[in-house]
Structure formats: structure tokens, C-alpha cells
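A sample copied in:

***
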Amino acid sequence: MHEADLVMTVNGPCPPPAIEGAILPREHLRSDLRCAAGAASDPNRWLDEEDAVVEELCGLRRYDALGLVVELSCIGAGRDAAALAKVAARSRVGVVAGTGFFAGPFTPAWALDADVDTLTAHLLAEIRDGLDGTGVRPGVIGEIGAWDGEPSPAEERCAVAAARASLASGLPVAVHHRGAVALLEILLGEGLPACRVSVADAGTDHAVPRKVAEAGGYVCLSSLGPDRLRHALALVEEGHADRLLLSSGLSMVSEIERYGGAGYGHLFRTFLPRMREAGIAEDTIRLITRDNPLRWLAHLERRHLEQ
């Protein structure tokens, strides 16, 4: 099996069949976006609650068959690879960590003026050697974004570097909803297959997720409210169930259960029951919550096309 066909977790490569149960493909378990130059400060954007996070993940493993969490706090977003390894070990839920440059004010100063080759080399070094001196290797590139909606020159270079690192390593790319369509076009322009890209959607215009799905990319719906349910049901109705990813999408301390939030289980407790009530079959639920994220993470779609 090619390494690109494996899911790289914080505990090492894992063959897809060994990952049982549901996957949360867009979460934050440990992040710090409290403040940066050019961005309003917000103490709520600091998520450093290991015990509470582990407790939630343990419950989801026991009662909802959670098998894997993709953690998208990349470079500049308070990533802590050592903490993620501890969460994975304590909860016995697999965790995928990320490399890549997030967006605008959270991009390290050295990267703002760096050229594409330098940025790409940095990503490939993390992919090869591990994150932050820990030996923990990333399994995804992202979440990359454009802070003001349209990518700045620095954000464009970071997106190009993400595409080139993905092509060289086989890792998938996750795109934030800020500047999503423009960033997707940059990635595709570099020759990255759309099926290697997951694009988050937080808008109300269904044309955006439809466009991503029709291009062959994955649409990742999180912050799961009425608009997300409408988009999810529409994508299934339009024949794009195999392009859909769902995640609770936590990023702030107030969103975990200990502090009154819906928690990582919001997908399982509220959103999936509503999809079932709308007539979505269990095999489609499994496709969306396990098979799709595995294809995105492990490059299984490429293998299928080559057979």
C-alpha cells in the first residue's frame, strides 16, 4: 500500500480499514487565535481544555462510535502537536494533525515575505520530519484561508505552497470558508485534483457548495444549523452525497460542553437525527460520516480511478 493511501495520525500511519466508526473532519482540539496584528482580539478563541476535550471524545467513542478527528489548527493557529498526541492517547480516538499556513494576521512574520519555494520546503519538512520538534507527522495540509475574503499576495503564495506540498506528499488540503472559492481555484490551477480538497462552507448561498461538489471537491459543512441542514439535504438530493463531509466544527472554548456549548457531539445528537427525519438512509449517513472523509484523507479515490 502506498503511503498516500494511509491516514497519517499523530500516532503514525493507519490503514483505512483499521479506522472504524465516524470521522469528524473539521475540528479544533487545541488552538489559540486570541489575538494577532490586524485581527480583533477575542479570549474565547483560546481552546486549551485537555481534560474536557478528552472527556467528550471518550463519550463519543463509546456511544457514537467516533473513530477519528481531523484537527485543523495549523501553523499560526496555536497548533500543539504534543498536546494532540496526549488527547489521542487518553481518549483512544485517532487524531490527525495539520501543517499549512492559516490566514492573514495569523501567518508567521517570516512567511509573509517568503517565496513559494521556501514555503513549500517548510511544509514538506514538517510532513517528512514532524511538527514542532515532536516527530508527530501531519496527515492534512490546512486549514488554509483568506482572512479578508480575497486572498492577499502572501495568502496566494501559501495556497500555492499547499498545493505543491500536497502533490509531492499525497496529503489532502483543507480550505477555510474565508476565500474558499478563490483558494480552490488557486489549488486547482496548480494541478491539484479537486478530490484532494475539502472546502468549508459557512454561507447561506447554496451555489457555493454546489459549485465545489460539481468540481469534484468535498464540501465540509460545520457550525451545523438550519442553513447547513438545507445545504446537506440539497447536496444529497442533487446526487452529491459522495462529495459531502460533516463536522461539528468547534473552535472556541465556549462551544465545548463544559462551558455550555453543544460540544463535539452536536453532529451526532442533533444534526444526524434531523437528516434521518428528512429521510436520509443509514447507508448514506455512513457514506457521509466515514467513507467520504476516508477517501479524502487517504487518497482512496485515486486508487479507485486507476483500477
Observations:
- Confidence is low (pLDDT under 50) at residues 303-307.
- The two ends are 14 Å apart (CA to CA).
- The CA atoms of residues 5 and 298 lie 5 Å apart.
